[in-house]
Amino acid sequence: MKQIQITIDESSLYGQTVLEVNDLSVTRSGKLVLEDINLEIKSGEFVGLVGPNGSGKSTLMLSILGILKAQKGSVRIYGSPPLSRNQIGKIGWVSQAAANLKKDIRITVKELVKLGTINTKNMFFRSKKEQHSAVESAIKMVGMEGYKNTDVSKLSGGQRQRAVIARALASNADFILLDEPLVGIDRNARNSLLKLLDNLCHDEGKTILMVSHDLAAIRQTAHRMIFLEQKIWFDGNSEEFPDLNELADLRGIHHVHEHASSKGEEE
Amino acid sequence: MTFEGLGLEILALLAPLLEILAPLMPGDIFPRFFNMEMMQRSLIASVMVTIVAGILGVFLIVQNLSLIGDGLAHVSFGGVAIAIVIGATNPLWYALMFSVIAAICIHELQARDILTGDASIAIFLTGVLSIGLISLTVWGGGVTADIHSYLFGSQLLIDEDTLNWISYVCIFSLIIMAFIGPSLLACIVDPLAARVQGLPVKGVGLLFAIITAGAVVTMVKVVGALLVTALLVTPAATAQLVGNSFRSCLLWTQFFGITSVLGGLYVSSEMGAGSGSAIAFFAAVLFALVAISKTTVNIMSKSNDN
């Protein structure tokens, strides 16, 4: 098995290093899920992380966030280990659970976004004024001004996803991680959501790392793509992302095509 | 003037106001809740307990933990039974101790995924209750009137010490909730995102469990162990039907809770029914009325659309 490495010549265009993963290996319930992951993301990049189910995408995200501990190797965000105090408020996490928020909880978009402004430092005392402006600008960024006081459970899938993204933005986060944000939303909503993420990256200067099953969608938006299945098999420009058969050859297996495409339809 | 305890200070503060309201109140006996000191004590205790119960209830309902109140109330009752057998002066301290320990254990069992919510509640409910009942029957001479009051509430028997005790627990719970409320909501809505924000998800959950345990014990004294859920869950559930934001749910819960208490006390004093059961009944009726009218409005607006 050989691994391909493509160096990105535009990397000089991007700024400081946001994320640095070195030789990361993670074992979960006795199974090696991630093996020798090396990854660097610079500020302003829009990175798509793809791979079949059970390929370790979620594990990688959880390790980056510091929820899972690495057995080997290290993760550095803005130069320090995950969950360090200097990262508080800088990282926005949009979890998969976002799409299936509890139905029996009455909470407006504004109230939901406001939750994003709470952190360790201001847990007990917050400036109402600062909080208010952070909430307003986050709602504006995702274009949900018209739904500020709407109950989240009454929103469509796409709108709900926007609300949850706004929650992540409300902390003024620069580095946004999204887990399957396109699940459960229709085609139009999907396209406008991708456009929103694109704008966040280009206009607001956010760094984005997004996990998705939807290869086509991620390919048209992300600048850089990573194919993960236990190891990183491809890391490079989106245009150079190999088609699935090629990828299968690279990895010495042959059913990746059916696998990945059937996944896409299920969602 | 010497400080005689938080409850009595609150009573002294509110008594003049209650006396102004007294002539406006309907019924023959009900106005005495506003102008007789013994009755004023029970009114103030009931309202304070209801306010705290309402706030906790809104948070419990969204976590699907509605039955924890019931569980902890039975645990408290077991604690009271043990205290009575030992001959303790204030059984509520024992109830508080058992309730807090049980709440912490239930929370830990859930947080560590050892048992799901309902099962751990059921085990503690029956476990501690049975210890209490066994010690009562073996050493304590069976179920006495005093025990009866803890099962069904003894609002009218709230003495000065108990009022002070309830006030301390309630005010303490309110202060803590004011601080951790938003963080708690963040942890409930999305625990993972809350951790990324740096919130101590486990600590906040544990603190909430302890507060709930304390509040339940005060409720046991007011409505009785069997009916705690009526104060804790019913007003919050009714509010879920009419509120359209978290904030409005909190406010509606207070409205429904306090209405239930006043209505229940009225019914119990005029008709001689037990106060705890009257409050629980009133709360359930309110829920039914709101649910029925909401459904009717929904059906009407749908048929108008067509």
Summarize the structure.
With 267 residues, chain A is an alpha/beta fold.
**Mean of pLDDT of chain B:** 87
How many DSSP-defined strands of chain B? 0
**Global morphology of chain B:** globular
Count of helical stretches of chain A: 8
Helix content of chain B: over 70%
Strand order of the largest sheet of chain A: 5-6-7-3-8-9
The Rg value of chain B, from CA coordinates, equals 20 Å
- How many β-strand stretches of chain A? 9
Approximate strand percentage of chain B: under 5%
CATH class of the domain at 14-90 and 206-267 in chain A: Alpha Beta
Major sheet of chain A: 6 strands, mixed
Q: Biggest interface in this structure?
A: A-B, 38 and 29 residues
- Amino-to-carboxy terminus distance of chain B: 69 Å
By CATH, the superfamily of the domain at 6-22 and 30-225 in chain B comes out as ABC transporter involved in vitamin B12 uptake, BtuC
Overview of the structural elements:
The complex is a heterodimer of chains A (267) and B (306). Chain A has 267 residues and is α/β, with parallel strands linked by helices. Chain A has a domain at 14-90 and 206-267: P-loop containing nucleotide triphosphate hydrolases (Rossmann fold), CATH 3.40.50. Helix content of chain A is 32%, strand content 23%. The longest helix of chain B is centred in the last third of the chain and has 31 residues, at 275-305. Chain B has a domain at 6-22 and 30-225: ABC transporter involved in vitamin B12 uptake, BtuC (Orthogonal Bundle). Chain B has 306 residues and is an all-alpha fold. In chain B, helix 12 packs across helix 13 (246-271). Chain B is globular and about 50 Å long. The chains are: A alpha/beta (267), B mainly alpha (306). The interface between A and B is medium-sized, with 38 and 29 residues.
